[in-house]
Specification:
With about 130 residues, the chain is mainly alpha-helical. It has helices at about 10-20, 40-60, 60-75, 100-115, and strands at about 75-80, 85-90. Strand 1 and strand 2 (about 85-90) form a beta hairpin. Helix 2 packs across helix 3 and helix 2 (about 40-60) runs parallel beside helix 4. The longest helix has 18 residues, at about 40-60.
Length: about 130
């Protein structure tokens, strides 16, 4: 399904969406689905620990390391402006990753750190 996507988490959000599209002059196709299995708190903590291992090794800030790691192995959303047509990209917060996306990030980071002999504490929990 192409087009706009909304994640509705509250009754208020649902009501606002319905109010906004009710009188819109075009037909909408809606797909309602259960949310996919979320990532775990342990996965988020482990992702931060892997980024921090890189930061320590490279003597960089944790924020800079996390940003670079997300650019290399993270989820990037590309969108196109409805007004100008310009394309923009943004990095997705770990909080918004799905379980499989987080697993992919963690695996990629473990491989990168291992191949570059950067010390980190492996985890089997995710």
């Amino acid at each position: 399904m192409n087009g706009l996507h909304w994640i509705i988490r509250t009754e208020e959000q649902r009501e606002n969406l319905i109010a906004n599209i009710r009188d819109f002059p075009v037909t909408f196709q809606c797909k309602v689905s259960e949310p996919s299995s979320p990532k775990t708190t342990q996965q988020i903590r482990y992702a931060h620990s892997l980024c921090n291992a890189l930061a320590i090794y490279k003597q960089a800030s944790p924020e800079a390391a996390k940003l670079d790691c997300k650019r290399a192995y993270g989820v990037i959303v590309v969108s196109q402006s409805l007004v100008t047509g310009d394309r923009t990209a943004r990095l997705v917060s770990f909080a918004d990753y799905k379980r499989k996306e987080m697993e992919g990030f963690l695996t990629s980071m473990e491989v990168f750190l291992s191949e570059n002999d950067i010390p980190f504490t492996p985890s089997e929990e995710y």
